[in-house]
């Protein structure tokens, strides 16, 4: 009888079944964890937006007013506020703008592009609890924009 040596015939690599099982497990884990990670990402953006609108915007407006000693449409512009440290875009990579400027108030529009349908309303609600804005001036327009008024004096 001929004996065959099994030393040289060892399996190298993975079988197709093993690879399919691993891919299936990865797909199940992704389906389970991905929605939570996306929600956490949106929550993080909302938190950053609140910080920007409660602290960064009033700070930039105050610094600009202190440099010029006036609050007008020529001294308070988006370009000048960006020079005072404000970002070019919102946390959702959309543009923000200066809507109106009076002698004692600046109104900012902060656009939102969120998958969270309550983001704008939640943002406006959080801002209205702040002392850094004109009282109850934060309003949400659908889920696409929040308008906020700041003191300028």
What would the keywords be for this entry?
alpha+beta; 4 strands; 153 residues; elongated
Task: Please explain how this structure is put together.
A four-stranded antiparallel beta sheet has the order 1-2-4-3. 45% of the residues lie in helices and 15% in strands. The chain is an alpha+beta fold. It has helices spanning 16-68, 78-83, 119-128; strands at 96-101, 105-111, 139-141, 145-151. The chain is elongated and about 85 Å long. The model has no long low-confidence stretch (mean pLDDT 88). It starts with 15 loop residues before the first helix and ends with a strand. The chain has one domain.
Short précis:
This protein has 153 residues and is an alpha+beta fold.
Low-confidence stretches: none
Element string (H = helix, E = strand): HHEEHEE
- What is the CA-based Rg, rounded? 27 Å
Average pLDDT confidence is 88
Structural class: alpha+beta
CA(first)-CA(last) distance: 103 Å
Give me the secondary-structure topology.
Blueprint (H helix, E strand, L loop, with lengths): L15 H53 L9 H6 L12 E6 L3 E7 L7 H10 L10 E3 L3 E7 L2
Antiparallel strand pairs: 1-2, 2-4, 3-4
Helix pairs in contact: 1-3
């Amino acid at each position: 009888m001929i004996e065959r040596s099994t030393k040289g015939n060892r399996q190298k690599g993975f079988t197709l079944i093993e690879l399919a099982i691993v891919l299936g497990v990865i797909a199940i884990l992704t389906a389970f964890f991905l929605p939570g990670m996306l929600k956490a990402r949106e929550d993080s953006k909302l938190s950053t937006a609140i910080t920007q609108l409660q602290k960064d915007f009033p700070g930039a407006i105050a610094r600009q007013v202190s440099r010029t000693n006036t609050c007008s449409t020529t001294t308070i512009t988006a370009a000048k506020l960006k020079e005072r440290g404000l970002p070019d875009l919102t946390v959702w990579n959309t543009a923000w703008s200066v809507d109106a400027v009076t002698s004692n108030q600046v109104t900012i529009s902060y656009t939102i592009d969120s998958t969270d349908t309550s983001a704008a309303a939640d943002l406006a609600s959080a801002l209205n609890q702040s002392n850094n804005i004109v009282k109850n001036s934060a309003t949400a327009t659908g889920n696409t924009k929040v308008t906020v008024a700041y003191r300028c004096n």
